[in-house]
Amino acid sequence: MVALALDNIGAMYGRSSVLSGVSTDILEKGSMTAVIGPNAAGKSTLFKRIASLISGPGLVHLSDTERAQTSICYMPQDTGANAVLTVYESILLSAKQGSGWRVHNDELDEIDSILKALRIDALAFRGLGELSGGQRQLVSLAQALIRKPEVLLMDEPTSALDLHRQVDVLSFVSNLARRKGMIVLIALHDLNHALRYCENTIVIANGTMVASGKTASVITTPMLQEIYQVNARIENCSQGRALVIVDGPI
Ligand SMILES: Nc1ncnc2c1ncn2[C@@H]1O[C@H](COP(=O)(O)OP(=O)(O)OP(=O)(O)O)[C@@H](O)[C@H]1O
């Protein structure tokens, strides 16, 4: 069974340390973990460190995988638009990363099914440079999913999406994680998404971890006051789901 654990992770840009002390219990396959915190806290930096794009102290334990590093896929926050490629070509290119260039029919079928699942099949032969921000974000998700990662690091994947697409994408990823046994870490600013979709939550502020554990025990009124400087309540809606209601800044 694939499992991930972070042991006192830190990260450096050049010689300056921007992140330290991030540890988690074992994150099991099929689980979603939210990474939350204010702007510039270090969420993207944590993902880059886990994906070995930057260096730093601590250990990323990934157990029971045969694919090691290639099984971790980082979906960045800013998806640069390469105007030369079509949507389809960009996903195919992502599928072939790290493998041979021969294309098999089943890979093309996979691309078709991901495009359909994300409801972007109509965009297949449009140039990346012609897409809206939300469309580019969905293509970026398709580029990540085609690689069948065991660990998927999603950096604010719904920030450019409308309300329908946000819940559509998060429900899809959460079901996929459960079905395929994928471990998902997801940086989020919408804490209601964290409460709804993520079993675990890591809170980062000023480059250090301030909490890590079950989402319901981490997202609390005192945490919101201390870390986000807002007065807020956690209330159950009529369907019994916990929601953050923000009353205003402190
Ligand atoms: N390439 C870089 N070189 C030096 N410092 C960097 C670099 N990238 C990010 N930083 C700094 O590292 C800190 C953490 O940035 P990071 O992008 O991880 O924050 P974040 O929590 O993802 O923020 P946001 O919610 O605004 O996206 C910030 O102070 C940022 O300025």
UniProtKB/TrEMBL annotation:
Bilayer-spanning residue ranges: none
GO biological process: zinc ion transport
InterPro entries per the UniProt record, alphabetical: AAA+_ATPase (IPR003593), ABC_transporter-like_ATP-bd (IPR003439), ABC_transporter-like_CS (IPR017871), Metal_Ion_Import_ABC (IPR050153), P-loop_NTPase (IPR027417)
A GO MF term: ATP binding
CDD domains given in the database record: ABC_Iron-Siderophores_B12_Hemin
Keyword list, A-Z: ATP-binding, Ion transport, Nucleotide-binding, Transport, Zinc, Zinc transport
Pfam families: ABC_tran
SUPFAM superfamilies xrefs: P-loop containing nucleoside triphosphate hydrolases
Domain ABC transporter: 4-231
Family in the record: Belongs to the ABC transporter superfamily.
Protein name according to UniProt: ATP-binding cassette domain-containing protein
Taxonomic placement: Bacteria, Pseudomonadati, Pseudomonadota, Alphaproteobacteria, Hyphomicrobiales
